[in-house]
Amino acid sequence: MKNDASKTATRKQRDPRSGARSVARKLALQALYRLQLNDGPWQDIVSDFSVEEDMDRADRDYFIEIVQGVATQRAALDAKLSDWTDRKPAELDPVEHAVLLIGVHEMCVRLDVPWRVIVNEAVMLTRRFGATDAHKYVNAVLDRAARALRSQEH
To answer: What is the pLDDT of residue 154?
Structure first.
């Protein structure tokens, strides 16, 4: 029987940034939700969220990258989303819409993040903040997106 140290050594090590990135995604979801309801400069949202309680545990640069990327590329991201959704992005629930925008953004620009991680994080956010069973919809849409955007990984 192996001792605990050797078991730990044989397991794949988890990226220590992953927890901070999860918090960054959660804060980005909240920021993008607010931006959908009250349109304004993305810089103002980033500034407002800089004092959020969870920001000290978040990957601040990742948070800014997501908010800036989604805010400045929203029309292009919505155009991509419309290929994989059953309704116009403007008709989506704001939480689901924000989660999907984050997921598609990450799939397009963060090739260092595996698509399965992106989908899992999106599903977890939707379970926490979205409507009942909305996570199933988000999972299906992002799976379609991954097949198109990350076909080499899928």
So the answer is: 72
